[in-house]
Amino acid sequence: MLDTTVNTQTQEMLDSLNAALESGDVARAAALFATDSYWRDLVAVSWNLKTVEGPAGVADMLTHQLAQTRPGKFEIQSGEIPTKEGGVITAWVTFETKTGRGWGLMRIREGRIWTLLTALQELKGFEENRGTRRPMGAEHGARKNRLSWKERRAAEEADLGYGTQPYVVVIGGGQGGIALGARLRQLGVPAIVLDKHDRPGDQWRSRYKSLCLHDPIWYDHLPYIKFPDNWPVFTPKDKVGDWLEMYTKVMEINYWTRSEVTRASYDETSGKWTVEVNRDGETVTLEPTQLVLATGMSGKPNMPEFPGMETFQGTIQHSSHHQGPEAWEGKKVVVIGSNNSAHDICAALWESDADVTMVQRSSTHIVRSDSLMEIGLGALYSEEALANGVTTEKADMIFASLPYKIMHEFQIPLYEQMRERDAEFYAGLEKAGFDLDWGDDGSGLFLKYLRRGSGYYIDVGASQLIIDGAVKLAKGQVDHFETDAVVLADGTRLPADLVVFATGFGSMNGWAADLISQEVADKIGKVWGLGSDTTKDPGPWEGEQRNMWKPTQQEHLWLHGGNLHQSRHYSLYLALQLKARMEGLETPVYGLQEVHHLS
Fold first, then answer.
1. How far apart are CA 377 and CA 447, in angstroms?
2. CB 288 within 8 A of CB 275
3. 310 CB-contact burial (10 Å; exposed 0-12 / middle 13-18 / buried 19+)
4. In 3D, which of 433, 319, 209 has the Cα closest to residue 334?
5. Stretch (H or E) spanning 538
């Protein structure tokens, strides 16, 4: 390519890509990509969440999809100017497909496309009623017996699920289900979100009182309505609960509280689900076409069993059922585990004058909150980022544009900075006997989260208690219980009035086994992880989160969850997939994930 301006080089690349795609020349399009390139597509071309690698991967996806999805009209996004740094051109782009419009981010290195992110944003003819298409709200003029907005809304609530069946049922009304419910509402997809609690947000209110979000506010917005500018950086759990309840109401989500699914089954002949719901004591049968399990990124609580538990005279809880430290003042408490929940619970118990011992069974990655915010997140999610023009939407896309295959290369230097900056802190932990790690390849927290969803703690104060010995540390595996103690494999005896198992959660398909069948759970396979072949993330390489936000091997069954950032960002792509199917659009799926692991 000619060595001209950055803008010209970018435009020439887009012109070449458009020409190849328009003419159906797969080989010519693939040749524009570097040998070590990555095209990450979010629904636009693949009707999947799919990353293909190298010219061969690009060619394979286009061979299967080009004639049907017809991507093209790639342009530099209006108002954006491509930049060049370190020999890499970065450009915001827009594009169209046969059925939709999208935007993305392209990086060019040495005259070839290095990374390309294409993300569908809307479906042609089915755009959201927002901006210039927003509803009027008021009907000007006069008409007899007309219903108010409130009356029409009440009639809809009374009818949906009884007189009219929803197209989608979402099981789970935490942040994931609520974000998806809002997206579906704006797309005109009849949906019901089911939750067993009394009020939206009770999933947060019912947890231990010291719980708060460890991610900063800029990372945690929900779709459509951002947290106000005076919202705290780290949101306390009850404030999260109140926000979710408010959001559910103002976004007019059809949200059924005190509603627990007792059974669900799929009829291949009709292409519909039968979902039996206990709605506040009343049995209601729903028959949606699409079923979404939005029960979080995690599955059922991992509650180990050990000899002697049945004779233990104290209390045994899983961390998800621990409501707080108030009842344990002056008591002996043993917390099994050393990740986020374990640290939070230990700190809260110590503050309430309990005698606390943490049992560390394996090494833990710890990063201080202020270091994570400044070094790990500051460039994308902070007041400084906003001042630099990096909106939440842009930050989400930049983060999504880094292929998982090479993300560790960008993360390792950041965590090396943190290790150096907080060397004294880590030395104190090691002196206290705490086993630290930085991930299998030194890539730190984000990759641990994406690969396994566990094994880390964002320090907001509990680590100092361990350094000071205020929270005692024991190490090893639990062997058995006695009537008044936990005994470790090395014979260490830990007297206890309360034992909290902060032992995490199983794969999310465990919910499918309980609600539908083990057969369906096995048909889906393991949920979460990238196939990185690192600890708790077995290969083969997947390139995307297993089974999340995309078609699964079980027809018409979807899984949705993750933190607030993922619930916000990926709810759009799941909602667009569901809307397209409701409207009867062609949705040829490329690269449907195979099942390699059952749990």
1. 14
2. yes
3. exposed
4. 319
5. none
- Which amino acid type is present at position 474? A
Tokens linked to 462: 């509990």
Report the C-alpha gap between 575 and 185 in whole angstroms. Answer: 9
Tokens of 100: 């939709």
The closest of 317, 312, 315 to 483, measured between CA atoms, is 312
346 pLDDT above the threshold of 60: yes
C-alpha 349/C-alpha 121 separation (Å) is 46
**% the chain with pLDDT above 90:** 89
Q: Are 389 and 92 in contact (CB under 8 A)?
A: no
Rounded-to-integer distance, Cα 574 and Cα 51, Å: 17
The pLDDT assigned to 1 comes to 43
Q: Which residues, 6 or more positions from 253, have their beta carbon under 8 angstroms from its beta carbon?
A: 178, 181, 182, 185, 193
**pLDDT at residue number 208:** 76
pLDDT at 4: 61
d(CA 258, CA 194): 8
Global pTM reads 0.95
Distance CA 106, CA 38 (A): 10
Q: Which of 12, 46, 35 is nearest to 543 (CA)?
A: 46
What band does 324 get if pLDDT is binned at 50, 70 and 90?
Answer: confident
Apex CA 524: angle with CA 520 and CA 526, to 5°?
125
Strand 100-109 with 168-171, pairing: unpaired
CA 419-424-425 angle, to 5 degrees, is 75
C-alpha span between 11 and 34 (Å, rounded): 17
pLDDT tens track for 99-141: 999 999 999 999 999 999 999 999 999 999 988 899 888 777 7
- Tokens of residue 200, six digits: 């939206």
Q: What mean pLDDT comes out for the span 326-354?
A: 95
- Tell me the domains of the chain and their CATH numbers: 1-123 (3.10.450.50), 154-299+508-583 (3.50.50.60), 302-505 (3.50.50.60)
Mean pLDDT within 47-62: 98
Distance of CA 451 to the CA centre of its chain: 12
Which residues have C-beta within 8 Å of that of residue 516, sequence separation ≥ 6?
A: 264, 265, 266, 557
Q: Taking Cα atoms as reference points, which of 438, 444, 437, 596 lies closest to residue 531?
A: 596
Instruction: Decide: 130 and 225 in contact? Cβ < 8 Å.
Output: no
pLDDT-derived band at 417 (thresholds 50, 70, 90) equals: very high
Confidence at residue 2, expressed as pLDDT on a 0 to 100 scale: 42
Cβ within 8 Å of residue 202, ≥6 positions away: 195, 241
Q: Are strands 485-488 and 478-482 parallel, antiparallel or unpaired?
A: antiparallel
Residue type, 587: T
Cα–Cα dist 225/353, whole Å: 40
Task: Please write the tens of the pLDDT for every residue from 366-379.
Answer: 999 999 999 999 99
Question: Count of CB atoms within 10 A of residue 478's CB?
Answer: 21
> What's the CA dihedral at 98, 101, 102, 107 to 10 degrees?
60
Q: Where residue 297 falls among pLDDT bands split at 50, 70, 90?
A: low
